[in-house]
Amino acid sequence: MALIRMAYASEATFSPQPSEAGVEPNVARILMVSRRNNPRRGIVGGLYYGNNQFFQYLEGDEDAIRDVYDVIRKDTRHRNVKTLIMEPLSEVTFSNWTMKYVPMAEDVSRLLKSEGLDRFEPAKFSDRMCEKMIGLIRNASETGGYGNRVAMGTAGPVGEVFTPGVRYGLVAAGVSLVAALVIGGVLLL
Ligand SMILES: Cc1cc2nc3c(=O)[nH]c(=O)nc-3n(C[C@H](O)[C@H](O)[C@H](O)COP(=O)(O)O)c2cc1C
């Protein structure tokens, strides 16, 4: 099996809609289909959406990647698809991860600022910038992640038990419980 990795930039053709559970609905649908299809094809990677533009990074078997890329390129939800990277890979670096949302918007803004860029325009990314984006996606996926106000997604662990929304709910419930115990304790004193 010949492994390859690839990245592309494209422009969304839809106008961003109010987000549902932190993710732009069109992007949420793309992530849902990718989550369903990519693991079956042994494809891993990440998708970032910002400034109505996409940056997608994929790793996997060459035939599988070329097939899915053929489909993706024809998708009318984006245009001006520009291949940024397409090259052989010795081993998969995103193993065990499938599509997932991560809170990366701030990291990306920080990265853009550090590179003197004022907006997310992946079609103009240099090789170095592409690698930095991939690094951000990879690191974000390693530390896990939660939903975000900005729609985005990347590789996530297969078979994760809780969705980001449920995780937020559990954390909120935990914080409320501790607060109630503290207040109760103070009132009893
Ligand atoms: C920016 C973008 C990224 C996409 N990424 C993937 C992907 O990684 N995997 C995938 O199967 N489909 C992806 N799609 C969706 C495909 O274009 C296509 O709609 C889908 O593969 C059809 O799947 P189905 O035949 O199972 O319905 C993407 C679409 C867009 C616009």
Question: Describe it for me?
Answer:
The protein is an alpha+beta fold. 42% of the residues lie in helices and 24% in strands. The chain folds into two domains: 3-158, Alpha-Beta Plaits, CATH 3.30.70.100; 161-189. The chain is elongated. The protein starts with a strand and ends with a helix. Bound molecules: flavin mononucleotide. Flavin mononucleotide binds at residues 10, 30, 33-34, 37-38, 47, 54, 56, 68, 71-72, 75, 77-78.
Ligands in the model, by name, code or SMILES, are: flavin mononucleotide
Task: State the shape.
Answer: elongated
Number of strands: 6
The fraction of residues assigned to DSSP E strands is 15-25%
Number of helices in the DSSP assignment: 5
Fold topology:
Elements: E1 3-12, H1 25-40, E2 44-50, E3 53-61, H2 62-74, E4 78-88, E5 97-100, H3 105-114, H4 127-142, E6 154-157, H5 164-188
Antiparallel strand pairs: 1-3, 1-4, 2-3, 5-6
This protein binds flavin mononucleotide (FMN).
Question: What are the salient characteristics of this protein?
Answer:
two-stranded antiparallel sheet, 6 strands, Alpha-Beta Plaits, 5 helices, 2 domains, binds flavin mononucleotide, four-stranded antiparallel sheet, alpha+beta, 189 residues
